[in-house]
Amino acid sequence: MAKKETNITNFNEHLTGRYGERGSERRTEFEIKAKAFLIGELIKEERKNAKMTQEQLADKIGAKKSFISRIENGKTDIQLSTLYRLLEFGLGKTVEVSVN
């Protein structure tokens, strides 16, 4: 008979234990960095699907390769206008914003 695991927590409980309650300064900082990473991964995936290098994407939107690299690695906070420029003009994608 398999042993029942009693120490399993859900993801939110894990985050609360590690970064504090939602709305706390530490948790908010973590969530902002996580979103920046997610956006960077999305841009990287779309760039690769378009068979473009970071340099090609940067040239297309009038930026430097290092800027694209920082975005793709979640190391910089970008404005919505920059996200729009990257996706719409750089990668030919449509940007839709929703608030839930």
Report on the structure:
The protein is mainly alpha-helical and 100 residues long. The chain has a single domain, classed as Orthogonal Bundle (434 Repressor (Amino-terminal Domain)), CATH 1.10.260. Helices cover 61% and strands 0% of the residues. The protein is built from 5 helices and no strands. Helix 3 packs across helix 4. The longest helix is centred in the middle third of the chain and has 25 residues. The radius of gyration is 18 Å and the shape is elongated. The termini are far apart. The model has no long low-confidence stretch (mean pLDDT 91).
Which short descriptors sum up this protein?
5 helices, 434 Repressor (Amino-terminal Domain), 100 residues, mainly alpha
In short:
Helices cover 61% and strands 0% of the residues. The protein has helices at 11-19, 25-49, 54-61, 65-72, 80-90.
What characterizes the major β-sheet?
none
Low-confidence stretches: none
* Number of helices, counting only DSSP H or I runs of 4 residues or more: 5
* Cα radius of gyration in angstroms: 18 Å
Q: Which class in CATH terms?
A: Mainly Alpha
Estimated helix fraction: 55-70%
Please name the fourth-level CATH homologous superfamily: lambda repressor-like DNA-binding domains
CATH architecture: Orthogonal Bundle
Number of folding domains? 1
Structural class: mainly alpha
